[in-house]
Every structure is written in C-alpha cells, then in structure tokens.
C-alpha cells in the first residue's frame, strides 16, 4: 500500500512539474513575441534582418545564395514541409489514424486546434502587414505578407500539436518523447529554410516560431481539460 502511495505521489509530482514548465515556457515565449512584434513594427530589427540575409548571399551577386547548388535544392524541398498542401496531407493522415484507433475526441480536437492556429496566422499577417524582404532575390515564389513567417508558425502549430497529441496516446514511455522531438526538429529546419531562401527576415521566423509555440502550449493545456490526462501519467 505504501509503495502504491509513493508511486502515485511521484506520478502526480511529475505531471504537476510538466504543467508548470509548460506554463512558464508559454509565458516567456508570449512576452518575447510581444516585444519582438513591437520592435518589428518600429523598424528596429531591419538592420539585423538585412545583414543576416546578405550574409547568406554571394557578395558579388545577392541573387546567388552561398553554398553548393544541392543546398539550395535541399532547402526548397525542406521548405515544402511547412507549406499548406503538405501540412494538410499530414494532418489528414494523422486524423484518419486517430479515428481508426477510435480516438474520435482526439481527432476532433486536433482538427479544430490546428485550423484555429492557421486562422490566427493569417490574421496576424494581415494585421501587421510587413512587406517581404527586398534586399535579396527570393528563391521561391511568395505572394503574401512577411511577419510572422507562415511556414514557421504553421509548422510549429501543426507539428508541435500533432507531436503532443501522438505522445499522449503512446503507451511506451521511451517513445513518448520521440514525436515532440521530431516536431521540434522539423519546425526548426523549416524556419531556417525560409531565411536561406530569402523570403523571410530572421525576425519573421522567430515570430512564427514564438506564435506557433504559444498556440501549441495552449492546445496542450486545452487537451488536458477536454481530453483528460492520459492514463498512467
């Protein structure tokens, strides 16, 4: 009986620590996002942004990126992982997988939370209305506003939310961290690809990462209320 009590106490302590840590991360990132947005609107980040973009281009021709040709092709392929088409396919596949596992509430929650995040991204772009970088040539076609980076924000929202939801239903403890780690890695390289391709300022990507992380944290908290805490955790 005492062993069971100690085990339950440990589980509760770990769960509470996870909640407080997530809340702290969300609070810090929210503060960073507001500060960054203010500096972007005031134009205080422009010199930094343009210097980073120019560092990634040939000094004699700003239309030519540094590095071998295969690196540019790789970045184009990576950036597609954060596009609406690929993200929609991935979300659809995961939602169908959850439905087949009869996790209907989780499937519905994933769909609503991700679509809500995508709507927020569009609203932020229209509200801030920062033009795309003009200091270097764009290596892929773009046609909307710049801040926050939609690819960075949507990938953070989508991959982090999916990672958290898949981690919830994973029964093997050693694999519960696999999905969130993959989500973080994909979000990171997609954001870097947008800077390398010259279609976003570094602060656009930072803003997208921050906004997406805050939304994913909020979705995690909402999941604990709507779906309940996973059994055994």
UniProtKB/TrEMBL annotation:
<feature type="domain" description="Phosphatidic acid phosphatase type 2/haloperoxidase">
    <location>
        <begin position="104"/>
        <end position="220"/>
    </location>
</feature>
<keyword id="KW-0472">Membrane</keyword>
<keyword id="KW-0812">Transmembrane</keyword>
<feature type="transmembrane region" description="Helical">
    <location>
        <begin position="12"/>
        <end position="34"/>
    </location>
</feature>
<dbReference type="Pfam" id="PF01569">
    <property type="entry name" value="PAP2"/>
</dbReference>
<feature type="transmembrane region" description="Helical">
    <location>
        <begin position="107"/>
        <end position="128"/>
    </location>
</feature>
<dbReference type="InterPro" id="IPR036938">
    <property type="entry name" value="PAP2/HPO_sf"/>
</dbReference>
<feature type="transmembrane region" description="Helical">
    <location>
        <begin position="178"/>
        <end position="197"/>
    </location>
</feature>
<dbReference type="GO" id="GO:0050380">
    <property type="term" value="F:undecaprenyl-diphosphatase activity"/>
</dbReference>
<dbReference type="InterPro" id="IPR000326">
    <property type="entry name" value="PAP2/HPO"/>
</dbReference>
<keyword id="KW-0378">Hydrolase</keyword>
<feature type="transmembrane region" description="Helical">
    <location>
        <begin position="148"/>
        <end position="166"/>
    </location>
</feature>
<feature type="transmembrane region" description="Helical">
    <location>
        <begin position="78"/>
        <end position="100"/>
    </location>
</feature>
<keyword id="KW-1133">Transmembrane helix</keyword>
<feature type="transmembrane region" description="Helical">
    <location>
        <begin position="209"/>
        <end position="227"/>
    </location>
</feature>
<protein>
    <submittedName>
        <fullName>Undecaprenyl-diphosphatase</fullName>
        <ecNumber>3.6.1.27</ecNumber>
    </submittedName>
</protein>
């Amino acid at each position: 009986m005492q062993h069971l009590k100690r085990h339950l106490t440990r589980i509760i302590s770990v769960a509470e620590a996870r909640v407080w840590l997530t809340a702290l991360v969300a609070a810090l990132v929210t503060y960073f996002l507001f500060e960054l947005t203010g500096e972007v609107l005031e134009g205080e980040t422009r010199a930094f942004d343009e210097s980073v973009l120019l560092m990634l281009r040939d000094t004699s021709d700003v239309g030519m990126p540094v590095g071998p040709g295969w690196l540019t092709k790789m970045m184009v392929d990576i950036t597609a992982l954060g596009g609406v088409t690929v993200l929609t396919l991935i979300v659809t596949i995961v939602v169908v997988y959850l439905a087949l596992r009869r996790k209907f509430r989780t499937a519905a929650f994933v769909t609503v939370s991700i679509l809500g995040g995508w709507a927020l991204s569009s609203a932020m772009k229209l509200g801030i209305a920062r033009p795309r970088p003009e200091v270097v040539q764009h290596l892929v076609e773009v046609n909307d506003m710049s801040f926050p980076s939609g690819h960075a924000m949507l990938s953070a929202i989508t991959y982090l939310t999916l990672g958290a939801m898949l981690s919830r239903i994973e029964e093997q403890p050693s694999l519960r961290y696999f999905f969130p780690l993959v989500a973080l890695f994909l979000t990171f390289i997609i954001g870097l690809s947008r800077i390398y391709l010259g279609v976003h300022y570094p602060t656009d990507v930072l803003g997208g990462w921050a906004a997406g992380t805050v939304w994913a944290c909020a979705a995690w908290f909402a999941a604990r209320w709507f779906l309940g805490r996973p059994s055994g955790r």
